[in-house]
Amino acid sequence: MSCWMPGCPALSTCRGLAALPITCLERAKDLKTRLGILLHKSELGHKTGSSSKLQLGSRWRDSSREVLEWRESFDQLLKSKSGVNAFHTFLKTEFSEENLDFWLACEDFKKTRSKTKLASKANRIFEEFVQSEAPREVNIDHETREITRKNLSGATSACFNEAQAKTRTLMEKDSYPRFLKSASYQDMTKQATSRGTSKRSHT
């Protein structure tokens, strides 16, 4: 608005601003700048929120697909971190989680590169899971137990292979089918299927 006309409201505004100390004007500019930054952040926050919702939706789809893949094979279950966690929770209800814990300990053991650590880890695993009357003794035959004991004298990353394979077979033939029939897994598959159905209905 131009302030050349006498009595123009803008003219009094201009005069008023001119009469203000410079520090007041600087503060006003500073406030305006800060308000602009806050508004910009608010818009960014809104965009980020939308983005995180999309990512969450993507994660839900991935986890739904994963849950359904667990029933395809025992290997598929063991490949999935969340699958292993769900299976472990189920095994606890049957008081047989030591089988999976032993299998996982063997998997970790195979990644050990230091020979010193290899020997100490081997003894620890043997004492906890394999030897007779071990605190968390796994269900393997006497022959396999003795073979594993002999392997400890020259511990290599393969010294638990036979015992681990026996334990894996036991879980696959015995615990895994019961897990698939369990109420907890049935609930997970229902949720996964319903999420998949709702996604298709929205597309």
UniProtKB/TrEMBL annotation:
Domain RGS: from-to ranges: 73-189
Region (Disordered), start-end ranges: 182-203
Name of the protein this chain belongs to: Regulator of G-protein signaling 16
A GO molecular function held by the record: GTPase activator activity
Described function: Regulates G protein-coupled receptor signaling cascades. Inhibits signal transduction by increasing the GTPase activity of G protein alpha subunits, thereby driving them into their inactive GDP-bound form. Plays an important role in the phototransduction cascade by regulating the lifetime and effective concentration of activated transducin alpha. May regulate extra and intracellular mitogenic signals.
Keyword Nucleus (UniProt): no
A Pfam family the protein falls into: RGS
Topological category with respect to the lipid bilayer: Lipid-anchor
Keywords annotated in UniProt: GTPase activation, Lipoprotein, Membrane, Palmitate, Phosphoprotein, Signal transduction inhibitor
Organism: Platysteira castanea
